[in-house]
Write a structure and sequence with these properties.
three-stranded antiparallel sheet, globular, 97 residues, alpha+beta
Length: 97
């Protein structure tokens, strides 16, 4: 069983809040770019709070599916996932205008 804790960073004057998760002693964000696999990775929010599942995104189609299936939730995270999906599409086909 994973031990999950959250820390919220932000000021009282700011609406922007950064969430950093601590799972089994490791810090996570909701989405990050994995330098080893060269792929963005998300925390599958449909599995929380009972399971902690990481999902690597390999294509723009997978990024869109993660948004549609609500594996990522909240406007900022949806926007970040869409931006990563666009980057994946351009990486796969740089000739796309």
């Amino acid at each position: 069983m994973s031990r999950l804790a959250a820390r919220f960073a932000g000021s009282a004057n700011s609406q922007a809040t950064e969430v950093i998760l601590l799972v089994n002693g490791r810090h996570y964000r909701s989405i990050w770019y994995d330098q080893d696999t060269r792929r963005p990775t998300i925390i599958d929010q449909t599995k929380l709070p009972y399971r902690f599942v990481e999902r690597a995104l390999s294509s723009a189609t997978e990024a869109a599916e993660a948004i549609k299936s609500m594996r990522v939730r909240g406007a900022p995270l949806i926007g970040a996932t869409a931006a990563h999906g666009l980057a994946l599409a351009l990486r796969d086909d740089p000739s796309t205008p």
